[in-house]
């Protein structure tokens, strides 16, 4: 089976319209009958959910900071197999990276050897767009900017000024998307809303596909795509938490990276899924229970009365199953969760922890994690942290010692009580 061609969608900065353009491209190319494999650069759960819906095919994360080059290349090759096109959405600006200077969209494009389609927000730009584009295009020899897409163009006159200026760069202009109110995706406290919570998402996606189809030269764009390199090495994966893993999955626990699930299945683990919001308990024969991250703070009351879910967790603990919670899952393992209105909701109570989001403070960044626990993973892990809630715990041994991307020691993270454990960290790969 042949591998796809591919390209990376990037921009000078966040807010330029990468997600809009990528979604529109996926939907428009899908309308043409192409099989498009979507991917997102770096640690992100929300954008891949949108990308997957637009492509009709699950999106994966390719993280050049947390993953080795070999893992990035093998994951990309595996994901692209059987597709016509691999489309990777970048993160932040093209060369924006972690504090140590690694992990940018440019790093990913160079690692994969794929061309960059450069999206520029033209609002409040005229002739100065040319040196902006030229600067990015010539900044790093190993990163090839193949073409430019202008976003939020105000008028025909504005477009003519931009087109004339860009001729001096020698880079092909693939098209200009006009400024339209229907081409804006609303945001929420942890980023974009989940697509299932956007009643008009299908309408938005149709508008994005129409705009991209009308204003972008898709044939020229497809001509810029280059083959995804074949890679014989299978993607390295973290070992499964158990042979029979029960995994929470619903609107409150939606954040889990596909490459982990695929790796666990490939290792022979039996995966089952349950919904705490529907008051479902984990499978009674599970030897490991995973509560992923998500938005439990939006469902505090429902989770507080989920008696079958709570009882199932206690039963799993009592039979010696490993129970592990990440971020939102860690919050659900605690005694209580205080929501944004200051209302306290009882959680499962497996860990002596109280979390609250009524005094929000954003915490985010890559983490290098060290542990000595029952987790069947290497002692060194790479992950990330992104939350607005905080945790109060007393006398609970931490789960992880943590360093940030620069190697600066952070406060110990999470807690463990026997084979019950969790933290705010989202683990991505072995260090």
TrEMBL record:
Kindly tell me the pathway this chain contributes to.
Cofactor biosynthesis; adenosylcobalamin biosynthesis; cob(II)yrinate a,c-diamide from precorrin-2 (aerobic route): step 9/10
Q: Please name the PROSITE patterns in this protein's record.
A: GATASE_COBBQ (PS51274)
- According to the entry, every stretch annotated as the CobB/CobQ-like glutamine amidotransferase domain falls at 245-429
Domain CobQ/CobB/MinD/ParA nucleotide binding span(s) in chain numbering: 8-188
This protein's UniProt keywords: ATP-binding, Cobalamin biosynthesis, Glutamine amidotransferase, Ligase, Magnesium, Nucleotide-binding
Catalytic residues as annotated in Swiss-Prot or TrEMBL: 327 (nucleophile)
Pfam families assigned to the protein according to its UniProt record, in alphabetical order? CbiA, GATase_3
Give a yes or no for keyword Magnesium in this entry.
Answer: yes
Bilayer-spanning residue ranges:
none
Q: What is its EC number?
A: 6.3.5.9
Which cofactor is recorded for it?
Mg(2+)
The UniProt comment on domains reads: Comprises of two domains. The C-terminal domain contains the binding site for glutamine and catalyzes the hydrolysis of this substrate to glutamate and ammonia. The N-terminal domain is anticipated to bind ATP and hydrogenobyrinate and catalyzes the ultimate synthesis of the diamide product. The ammonia produced via the glutaminase domain is probably translocated to the adjacent domain via a molecular tunnel, where it reacts with an activated intermediate.
- Miscellaneous comment text of the record: The a and c carboxylates of hydrogenobyrinate are activated for nucleophilic attack via formation of a phosphorylated intermediate by ATP. CobB catalyzes first the amidation of the c-carboxylate, and then that of the a-carboxylate.
Q: Which family is this sequence assigned to?
A: Belongs to the CobB/CbiA family. Belongs to the CobB/CobQ family. CobQ subfamily.
What protein does this entry describe? Hydrogenobyrinate a,c-diamide synthase
Organism annotation: Devosia ureilytica
């Amino acid at each position: 089976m042949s591998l796809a061609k591919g390209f990376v969608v990037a921009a000078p900065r966040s807010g330029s319209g990468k997600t809009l353009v990528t979604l529109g491209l996926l939907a428009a190319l899908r309308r043409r009958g192409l099989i498009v494999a979507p991917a997102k650069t770096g640690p992100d759960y929300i954008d891949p959910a949108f990308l997957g819906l637009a492509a009709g095919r699950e999106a994966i994360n390719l993280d050049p900071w947390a993953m080795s080059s070999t893992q990035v290349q093998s994951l990309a090759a595996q994901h692209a197999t059987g597709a016509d096109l691999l489309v990777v959405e970048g993160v932040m600006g093209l060369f924006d990276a972690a504090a140590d200077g690694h992990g940018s969209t440019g790093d990913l494009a160079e690692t994969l050897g794929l061309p960059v389609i450069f999206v520029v927000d033209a609002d409040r730009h005229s002739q100065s767009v040319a040196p902006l584009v030229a600067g990015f295009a010539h900044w790093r020899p190993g990163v090839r900017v193949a073409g430019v897409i202008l976003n939020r163009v105000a008028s025909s006159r504005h477009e003519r000024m931009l087109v004339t200026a860009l001729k001096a760069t020698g880079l092909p202009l693939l098209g200009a998307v006009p400024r339209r109110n229907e081409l804006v995706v609303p945001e929420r406290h942890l980023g974009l809303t989940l697509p299932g919570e956007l009643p008009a998402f299908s309408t938005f996606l149709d508008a994005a596909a129409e705009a991209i189809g009308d204003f972008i030269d898709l044939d020229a764009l497809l001509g810029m795509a280059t083959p995804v390199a074949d890679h014989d090495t299978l993607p390295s994966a973290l070992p499964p938490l158990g042979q029979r893993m029960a995994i929470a999955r619903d609107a409150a626990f939606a954040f889990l990276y596909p490459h982990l699930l695929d790796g666990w299945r490939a290792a022979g683990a039996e995966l089952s899924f349950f919904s705490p919001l529907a008051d479902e308990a984990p499978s009674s024969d599970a030897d490991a229970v995973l509560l992923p991250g998500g938005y439990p703070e939006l469902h505090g009351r429902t989770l507080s009365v989920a008696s079958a879910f709570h009882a199932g967790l206690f039963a799993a603990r009592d039979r010696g199953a490993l129970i592990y919670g990440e971020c939102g899952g860690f919050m659900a393992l605690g005694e209580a969760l205080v929501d944004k209105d200051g209302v306290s909701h009882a959680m499962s109570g497996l860990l002596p922890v109280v979390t609250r989001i009524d005094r929000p403070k954003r915490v985010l960044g890559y983490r290098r994690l060290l542990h000595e626990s029952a987790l069947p993973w290497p002692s060194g892990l790479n992950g990330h942290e992104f939350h607005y809630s905080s945790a109060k715990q007393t006398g609970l041994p931490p789960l992880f010692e943590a360093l940030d991307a620069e190697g600066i020691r952070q406060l110990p993270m999470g807690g463990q009580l026997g084979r019950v454990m969790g933290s705010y960290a989202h683990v991505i790969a072995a260090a």
